[in-house]
Design goal:
The chain is mainly beta. The protein has four helices and 17 strands. The strands form two sheets. The chain has a 15-stranded mixed sheet that branches.
Length: 298
């Protein structure tokens, strides 16, 4: 992956995963609070899926205005994050000098803008065009999957799952997902007592690691009674990215329907909107290379 692709990937994953330095094969141990067990020891797959989905399916939205993002190679950023099912997402981050990036997703598009991106643009793409678009040259995985990194993923009972039991009261579930790029494998590590999703490791069809997320600091929301993590970490081995997001006192199911502006592709003065789903779209790195090649051959 070249430097240009790493910059695009950074923008996408910074909103949805964060940095532990953990590689995909290594599973990270996490201390569990002494709570009454929700799952029996060595619970069968059906029971585990029921417990996970019972909590996570009720998380229809979450939001925080006091998040922070940190990682190697950039300063700590303050951020606001909001999510609403099925795939509405918005994260904006800033530093002392102003806004640094804006990324999001609505029912039709996902988009991202990065202050230091050259050339400057708001890049967007329809969800249903992503798999066949040139955007895949810069974004190696479907952005919709990234939302799962916050530990609110559900298990589809219709997909093939394989369960195994690990030391320290951990459960491992391997899931195969068919994608336009071939079958992808997701490994999820769960707390064997509470059913919390602690880790998620994604591999492509060639079993190359795509990304790993680690969730911690699980907290029960005082109003809804639902549980989600307050810290999310990611490691992307291919791009050598490692970052951390602290969500702060994230609020669950308190977003109202009058927040339509959250899910709107931003309009930034002097900045064009580039549709990556356009058949004529070429990533700027490819355009630069082609231009240089033409000049060389003249």
């Amino acid at each position: 992956m070249n430097a240009y692709q790493r910059r695009w990937l950074l923008l996408l994953v910074v909103g949805l995963f964060a940095a532990s330095g953990a590689s995909c094969p290594r599973m990270i141990r996490q201390v569990t609070n002494p709570l009454p067990r929700v799952l029996p020891p060595a619970a069968p797959l059906e029971k585990v899926i029921e417990v996970v989905n019972r909590n996570n399916s009720q998380i229809q939205s979450f939001s925080t205005n006091r998040a922070s993002i940190s990682g190697q190679g950039f300063p700590s950023l303050t951020a606001s994050i909001a999510f609403q099912r099925p795939q509405r997402f918005r994260m904006k981050a800033e530093w002392m000098t102003g806004a640094e990036f804006d990324m999001g997703s609505n029912d039709e598009f996902f988009w991202f803008w990065m202050r230091r991106q050259e050339p400057p643009a708001v890049y967007k793409c329809r969800h249903d065009q992503f798999a066949a678009s040139q955007a895949r040259q810069a974004v190696p995985f479907d952005p919709k999957w990234l939302i799962e990194a916050f530990g609110v993923a559900e298990f589809d009972p219709g997909l093939p799952h394989q369960i195994s039991y690990l030391p320290n009261d951990r459960i491992r579930i391997d899931t195969i997902r068919n994608t336009p790029q071939g079958p992808m494998t997701k490994i999820a590590i769960l707390d064997g007592s509470q059913g919390w999703i602690l880790e998620q490791h994604l591999f492509d069809a060639q079993r190359h690691p795509v990304g790993s997320s680690v969730a911690s600091g699980h907290r029960r929301d005082p109003l809804s009674g639902l549980v989600m993590p307050t810290v999310v970490q990611i490691n992307c081995p291919a791009s050598q990215l490692a970052m951390r997001i602290d969500l702060g006192n994230v609020e669950i199911n308190r977003l109202t329907d009058d927040r339509a502006a959250l899910w709107t592709v931003p309009s930034i003065p002097g900045t064009p909107v580039v549709d990556m789903g356009d058949p004529n779209f070429r990533p700027p790195a490819a355009q630069t290379t082609a231009t240089h090649s033409r000049r060389t051959t003249r």
